[in-house]
Design goal:
This protein has 425 residues and is an alpha/beta fold. The chain has 18 helices and 14 strands. The protein has helices at 2-24, 35-38, 62-78, 91-100, 118-128, 142-150, 164-172, 174-183, 192-201, 222-233, 248-256, 276-282, 312-319, 337-341, 356-364, 374-386, 388-403, 408-420; strands at residues 54-58, 83-88, 108-112, 132-136, 155-160, 186-189, 207-208, 238-244, 265-270, 288-290, 303-305, 321-324, 345-348, 368-370. The strands form 2 sheets. The chain has a 7-stranded parallel β-sheet, sandwiched between helices. A 7-stranded parallel β-sheet has the order 10-11-9-8-12-13-14, with helices on both faces.
Length: 425
């Protein structure tokens, strides 16, 4: 009965959901593309796979796609006869996947996962016939998991995390979510605490493998391109505020008004590039330029808005001081490991619960500073600008800490091996 009510609610909401896609497409045209895929229709040449076995990896958006990169790389190496089907829910996630795996020449096929309606999930599974389903982090859809069980597709949840708040929500829907949790064949949790909460929800025997985000390799050309960009910046310091969210840029700009930036270039990378004009307007009163328009770098104490996609790695490599956004406002933070691996001293705000494990590891090593708000951020920026040796020590500690976890994707791939050979893990 609960599943019937859940499915009926999806059917009733579907017209509104599709209209919302069209509405969001006003500013993000990608939401108006490939709508048929979201309804479970995949006819045509782009989806015609060769007669090869398929490993399906679901990565909702940018963060999950970046986290999946080392795992997908490991699977492609370990299973050379397989094709990776990479599904998403957002256009930015899809664009990120396209950029990350462009070199694999047809071995990675991308599409949107349909909405969690049984008939749509069934069409998806019948079209692609995956050998295994690998869900990244938190994406457990009850009807989709149920259809996988009916069609004999084992389901793994990888890099799994579950906060106390999410556990409470899941327990309020215990009949629906508990069934989905019990149906998971294999779960690789980030921490012991995550594993314990997942067991409370109904998961059987979760493995603790750590966070594979520790092994997200920077783009191959990030260091060299970053060095070239650093030369373009000249001798002046550069402060990078990365993956910022709506409402956060104003907090940052206000906090830094009390900091003597000298000739420092403030580089802001909004999480959603289409907000470039909005972010530039917030910086009015200072010299400002937008990268998407190929505008010349602003003069001393200016603001450069990098409203482009897929360049964050080279920007980290070009700077050395990075505040990671989505954390001064309540969005759960963003990946702190990429800037650490690329030689940045890192700070993050108080709302970083989505990356609690890597934040704690980097902070313990002296590589990352947690700032409680604007005033603390301003103090950290002043310290990093005034004390280059301290900045260099933090950057070195970050690189060393991140490199210690390079084997994690292979451990996760080994955990999945039994599923791909027909066994259970």
């Amino acid at each position: 009965m609960i599943r019937w009510i859940y499915s009926a609610a999806w059917y009733l909401a579907l017209p509104v959901v599709v209209l919302r896609l069209w509405w969001r497409g006003r500013h993000e045209p990608g939401y108006r593309q490939h709508i048929a895929e979201r309804l479970g229709f995949y006819s045509g040449a782009p989806y015609a796979l060769r007669k090869q076995p398929v490993i399906w990896v679901h990565a909702v958006s940018v963060g999950e796609t970046r986290a999946a990169e080392p795992l997908v790389d490991a699977l492609l190496r370990d299973y050379p006869d397989h094709v990776i089907l990479l599904t998403h829910m957002t256009p930015t996630g899809r664009a990120t996947g396209k950029a990350l795996f462009a070199s694999y020449a047809g071995r990675v096929v991308q599409c949107y996962l349909p909405y969690d309606i049984g008939s749509m999930a069934r069409r998806f599974l019948q079209h692609f016939s995956p050998q295994v389903c690998i869900l990244m982090e938190t994406e457990v859809w009850p009807n989709t998991v149920a259809q996988c069980v009916r069609q004999g597709v084992p389901v793994a949840l990888v890099n799994a995390r579950l906060s106390a708040r999410s556990l409470a929500k899941g327990q309020r829907l215990a009949t629906l979510m508990g069934e989905a949790a019990r149906s998971l064949t294999c779960v690789a949790a980030q921490t012991e605490a995550d594993a314990a909460r997942l067991e409370e929800l109904g998961v059987r025997n979760p493995h603790v493998t750590g966070s594979i985000k520790f092994d997200v390799e920077p783009p191959a050309n990030a260091v060299s391109d970053g060095a070239a960009l650093r030369f373009h910046f000249g001798r002046r310091p550069v402060l990078l505020c990365a993956s910022t969210r709506e409402g956060e840029e104003a907090l940052i700009l206000d906090a830094l008004r009390n900091v003597d930036l000298g000739d420092t270039l403030l580089l802001i990378v909004p999480r959603h590039p289409q907000r470039g004009a909005e972010v530039a307007a917030l910086a009015a009163g200072r010299p400002v330029a937008r990268r998407s328009r190929d505008e010349a770098l602003p003069e001393a104490a200016g603001v450069w808005v990098a409203d482009t996609l897929g360049e964050l790695g080279l920007l980290y490599a070009a700077t050395g001081i990075a505040f990671v956004g989505g954390s001064l406002v309540a969005h759960g933070g963003q990946n702190v490991l990429e800037p650490a691996r690329l030689g940045c001293a890192v700070a993050i705000g108080p709302h970083a619960q989505n990356f609690a494990e890597p934040v704690a590891a980097l902070a313990a090593a002296g590589a990352l500073t947690e700032v409680a708000g604007g005033a603390a951020l301003a103090a950290w920026v002043s310290t990093m600008l005034d004390d280059p040796p301290r900045r260099a020590a933090a950057a070195a500690a970050g690189q060393a800490t991140a490199s210690q976890h390079a084997a994690l994707p292979h451990l996760v791939a080994q955990t999945l091996a039994a599923l791909l050979t027909g066994g259970a893990s």
